[in-house]
Amino acid sequence: MPRLKCGVKTCVFYRERHCTRASIIVKGATALAEEETRCQSYSRDVPDKRDDSYLMEIGSIGEINYQMPVYCEAVNCKYNSHRICYAKEIKIDGSRALHPDQTFCSSFEVK
Ligand code: SF4
Ligand code: SF4
User: Fold this and answer.
1) Is 24 in the pocket of ligand 1 (CB under 6 A)?
2) Is residue 111 domain-resident?
3) Would you say the pTM of this structure is higher than 0.85?
4) Is the CB of 97 under 6 A from ligand 1?
5) Is there a domain that residue 76 lies in?
6) What is the span of the domain harbouring residue 40?
7) Tens digits of per-residue pLDDT, 66-106?
């Protein structure tokens, strides 16, 4: 289970360079480079819309989770085994992301 750092400040789950989710999903089944991966769990933060229905949709925002399971489809990454990430530490990036496609796992290393 990797320690996870995140630089995606536009995500509703982002807090203090970390993530508040219990787990994340990374996509990129054919990725051969970090830019071809993405954090599928990204959800754009829209502070004005943080009403009850929005929070119900995304689930409650908990505390920072420093270490979490990462379910990853980037099978060409050397840290991937059976679609689970076994890196000790990973970093999700995409500082101006407005969509999951604009995020990526900067810890990707091709096998
Ligand atoms: S982009 Fe992914 S890792 Fe970063 S805070 Fe959002 S859900 Fe968590
Ligand atoms: S380091 Fe590799 S296996 Fe782990 S989340 Fe990133 S791309 Fe997936």
Assistant:
1) yes
2) no
3) yes
4) no
5) yes
6) 3-105
7) 999 999 999 999 999 999 999 999 999 998 999 999 999 99
